[in-house]
Amino acid sequence: MASMQYIQYYSHTLERNINLEITGHWGYPILMFPSSYGSFTQNNDFGLNGSVMNFVEEGRIKLYNVETLDGITFYAENMSSEVKIHNYELYMQFLKNELIPYIQQECNTHRIAVAGVSFGGYHAGNTAFRFPDLVSHLFSMSGVFNIRNFVPLSDDMRIYFNCPDEFMQNEEGWKYQHMNIVLSTSDWDSCKPKNEHMAGILQSKGIPYWYDEKKWIDHDWPLWKMVFPEYIGRYF
After folding, report:
1. In CA terms, which of 4, 73, 124, 150 is 20 to 30 Å from 82?
2. Where does residue 15 fall: left (phi above 0), alpha (psi -120 to 50 degrees), or beta otherwise?
3. Is residue 56 pLDDT above 90, yes or no?
4. Sign (positive/negative) of CA torsion 184, 188, 52, 94?
5. What is the CA radius of gyration of the chain?
6. What pLDDT shows up at residue 1?
7. Spatial separation of the C-alpha atoms in residues 171 and 107, rounded to whole Å
8. What number of other Cβ atoms are within 10 A of residue 177's Cβ?
9. Mean of the pLDDT values across residues 37-52?
10. Which pLDDT value is given to residue 45?
């Protein structure tokens, strides 16, 4: 039986506690994000963690499910675009400077994997593409790669640097040659065009990736629970 613990990680950047669910004793660390406005326990509650539990119990991977701040960033309807992107940029600095180093030290590894479904796929992709030195694997399942629709009427440059399908067009491909990138979608997935577009950008940069399109499944948990074990088994 895999161990599970819940901790509150205090962030000096955010000046608040961030909830973290940790599953497994040992293994390669995977930082996992919930879908839009989801709890940090969402991936466990909806069975995504369970779909790869045999890999956890074998000590091949260790799951770190982290709280996001969707409620005070992109899904905060009462906030201005500038405040939203300011809060999200602080969250990104928390990941880069606090949480990921904590995971690296705990697991004695130079890089970590990141994963997420739907808007969690956005968080995972944005983390991987912005901080390639810290990330070895990206599993974006039905992810999105642009947040301009959440921050209208703003030309804040921080928006650009949090839209992977924009800033990656100007990045140097060599920075990502080490990374195992999976863009997962399906033929009925509402996010299929976004994944096709992101795959095209990676292709143009000579960045290796796996674009995996399943058939006869839509944008929901049955797809994600089916594909996640396949990706973990391939890379771990």
Report:
1. 124
2. left
3. yes
4. positive
5. 17
6. 77
7. 29
8. 10
9. 97
10. 98
Say if CB 98 and CB 85 are below 8 A apart.
no
Q: Report residue 79 as tokens.
A: 């906030």
Q: Token pair of 139, please? A: 């599993």
Q: What is the dihedral of CA 165, 170, 172, 178, to 10 degrees?
A: -10
In the predicted model, what is the mean pLDDT of the chain?
Answer: 97
Residues 45 and 51: their CA atoms lie apart, in Å, by: 11
pLDDT of residue 136: 98
How big is the chain, counted in residues? 236
* Residue that is written with structure tokens 């994997």 in the block: 113
The first and second tokens of residue 183, run together, are 């863009």
- Specify whether the CB–CB gap between 31 and 114 falls below 8 A: yes
H helix runs in 29-148, sequence order: 42-45, 48-51, 53-57, 81-94, 100-107, 119-130
Q: Is the dihedral of CA 157, 132, 141, 74 positive or negative?
A: negative
